[in-house]
Write a structure and sequence with these properties.
14 strands
Length: 377
């Protein structure tokens, strides 16, 4: 179940109809999930617990109709390709894909190939796909690189609006969060900005955090559910040595008319949502955030030989009315992570390593003990 199915409310804001990133009109999400094999690790042979998640920002071809975007780095031991061009131009020109650390290259190339096929192989253009990663090597044969271009293409082909599958799906299949089973999660908020309603949605691939720091609505859940009650995954020796290794990617969408610098500020606030559940941006954690706006449509491709119009009419939200969006992205990110945890199911992967799910009823009971099932008490 999701957090709100259990009566758990984070923050003061109102979710959108689906409480998902797809509440932002035109945004679609697709997953391709790979689960195969059991037993001892055989590099190249499994077990396989991984996949690909793709976010399509609008109904059209994003390379032909880019959107304003911004980004933020909470801690940089991770990868989200294409960010330099986003920082430089303020534009998102590709779908966004999420996968495991050692499959970024094949997914990035698959997105480039998709654009080549859409434009035609003789067309002169460049492509800088946006692909993020977190490391699923505790459960998955990550060095076997089981994700293929066909899997990335399938995630794109199946991307739809509506409810978003969460937990052990797509790129989140083999992930671990706060030493429970992690994965993909999403949530949204509707913000009132000077009398106009805008939606902010977040999608996370959550593979970060320590058990002892995990908290919900201020309740020290991770201390109350210790490893004596719910075992922490027995990880490979190198991960134990790293201590706290793990990462999170946060993708934020909004229909508010924000320019690139404003979107970078929005992405920055997503880090506060990560922190509210107790994460600290550990040294070995890659915590990267990307935000894009579906407003200001009509921007055209800037490929070679296609200069387009000399300018574009734009709308920008006044900074006097941006605070509700900041609050919305904090809450949406926080709830997306909790949804990832609650929707995930216990999974056993390589070498019998088991990541146990966070039990929703148990969590709700602990929050009740403190009168904090709702943020307002």
């Amino acid at each position: 179940m999701r957090a709100r199915d259990l009566g758990i409310e984070l923050g003061l804001g109102r979710p959108g109809p689906l409480n998902a990133i797809t509440d932002v009109g035109g945004v679609r999400v697709g997953h391709e999930t790979l689960i195969a094999g059991d037993g001892p690790l055989r590099v190249g042979g499994g077990p396989v617990r991984t996949g690909v998640t793709v976010v399509l920002p609008h109904e059209g071809e994003i390379s032909e109709a880019p959107l304003f975007a911004g980004c933020h780095r909470l801690n940089g031991n991770g990868e989200l390709t294409g960010l330099e061009w986003i920082r430089e131009s303020g534009l998102l020109t590709s779908p966004v894909a999420l996968t495991n650390t050692h499959s970024v290259g094949v997914v990035r190339d698959a997105l480039a190939r998709r654009e080549i096929e859409a434009r035609g192989p003789g067309k002169l253009f460049w492509s800088l796909p946006v692909v993020g990663e977190t490391w699923d090597g505790c459960l998955n044969d990550v060095n076997g690189q089981h994700v293929t271009a066909a899997h990335a293409a399938a995630a794109v082909a199946t991307a739809v609006g509506g409810p978003v599958p969460e937990g052990n799906v797509g790129g989140g299949t083999g992930m671990i969060c706060h030493d429970f089973k992690g994965g993909c999660g999403t949530a949204s908020r509707v913000a009132d900005c000077g009398g106009r309603a805008f939606t902010v949605g977040a999608l996370v691939q959550a593979n970060h955090g320590r058990r002892e720091r995990f908290q919900v609505n201020g309740v020290p859940v991770g201390l109350l559910i210790g490893d004596d009650a719910v075992p922490i995954p027995v990880t490979p020796e190198e991960t134990q040595a790293a201590g706290g290794a793990g990462s999170i990617i946060v993708i934020v969408a909004t229909d508010a008319p924000l320019l690139p610098q404003q979107l970078s500020r929005l992405a920055q606030r997503a880090g506060l949502g990560v922190a509210l559940l107790g994460a600290c941006g550990d040294n070995y954690s890659g915590d990267l955030m990307l935000a894009f706006s579906t407003a200001n449509r009509g921007l055209t491709s800037m490929s070679y030989g296609e200069p387009g119009p000399i300018g574009f009419p734009l709308e920008m939200l006044s900074l006097a009315h941006i605070d509700p969006l900041f609050a919305a992205v904090v809450e949406a990110t926080e709830e997306a992570i909790l949804n990832a945890l609650l929707q995930a199911e216990t999974m056993t992967g390589r070498d019998g390593v088991t990541a146990y799910a966070l039990d929703g009823e148990r969590l709700a009971g602990l929050l009740d003990c403190y009168g904090r099932r709702r943020y307002r008490g």
